[in-house]
Design a protein that fits this description.
2 domains, seven-stranded mixed beta sheet, single chain, 9 helices, Rossmann fold, elongated, alpha/beta
């Protein structure tokens, strides 16, 4: 059956490029002769029926902005059968045929539960697209927002390096990424950090100490999910171990900088805008072909569709 109406939403944590994705979905859908609806506040907005018909002009002048004009949230209610039934009824009342969602792992889990062919509450098509700075979605080399987050953290470390050099300080910089070290690893390489601590590899404190003693100042990048327990815990351990036993003049100069949510904001890079736009068009095309319970990814610079 040919689809006539699609809905688009953003879910979970925001990431730079989500607005470019919304714009690309809306305009690709309209170009293909579809009615396109935007869902405000993610899955919770789907339950509360916060759906608005989008026009070509409704997505003007948003491609350069961070965040998401459709807003986003995490919905505990959508985790229940009753919540998903409300969401399904709202989509059916408008005659929506396909739902395209930009988000991460939790968003994909919601789509799978919602449109499961045997136990799901909705019979329409669902397609996920990866939007998260963590780059932790399986099936794609890159997620929307990852490149911008790298650049944001890199620029912050460039500034910290000036102070570190002036005062012979060791900076420990904590970046986001949850349990994935991709962001920390990329930021560490781009900023020239001599130590990068990530969840995928065990942290050897003695090696870090040796590196610090060999330099007048140093940058350490640590992922928030590293088993050490974050930047403050690492600083505590290093301060305790840094000075040789009996050396009275030793005064370790450590500073901690937790970049936090600054990494999720800001104008998306060209790479993220292009990735978001091309993924959006690809998702619309695949929806028209009848795809469901699927996700869009990019592998070796080629767009791919795979099973959720």
């Amino acid at each position: 059956m040919a689809i006539k109406k699609i809905a688009v939403m953003t879910s979970g944590g925001d990431s730079p490029g989500m607005n470019a994705f919304i714009r690309g979905t809306v305009r690709a859908g309209i170009k293909k002769g579809l009615e396109v609806y935007g869902i405000y506040e993610g899955y919770q907005g789907l339950i509360e029926n916060l759906l608005v018909k989008m026009s070509y002009d409704s997505v003007c002048n948003i491609i350069q902005h961070g965040g998401t004009i459709l807003k986003t949230s995490r919905s505990k209610e959508f985790m229940t059968v009753e919540g998903r039934k409300k969401a399904a009824a709202n989509l059916d009342a408008l005659g929506i045929d396909a739902l395209i969602c930009c988000g991460g792992d939790g968003s994909y889990a919601g789509l799978k539960a919602f449109a499961n062919k045997e136990t799901g509450e909705w019979k329409g098509q669902v397609i996920g697209t990866p939007g998260t700075i963590d780059n932790d979605v399986k099936g794609t080399d890159y997620t929307i927002g990852f490149d911008t987050a790298i650049n944001t953290a890199m620029e912050a470390i460039d500034k910290l390096r000036d102070t570190g050099d002036s005062h012979n300080m060791h900076f420990i910089v904590e970046v986001m990424g949850r349990h994935c070290g991709d962001l920390a690893n990329a930021v560490g390489i781009a900023s020239g950090a001599n130590n990068v601590l990530i969840p995928e590899t065990p942290t050897n404190v003695d090696e870090v100490l040796k590196s610090l003693r060999d330099h007048g100042h140093d940058i350490i990048v640590i992922a928030e999910g590293d088993e050490i327990g974050g930047a403050y815990k690492l600083a505590e351990i290093l301060k305790e171990k840094y000075c040789p036993v009996g050396e009275k003049e030793c005064n370790p100069n450590f500073r901690v900088c937790v970049l936090g949510h600054i990494q999720r904001g800001g104008s998306p890079t060209a790479r993220d805008r292009i990735l978001a736009h091309t993924m959006a068009e690809f998702a619309v095309d695949k929806a028209l072909e009848g795809a469901t319970l699927s996700a869009v990814g990019i592998k070796q610079d080629n767009l791919v569709l795979y099973s959720l």
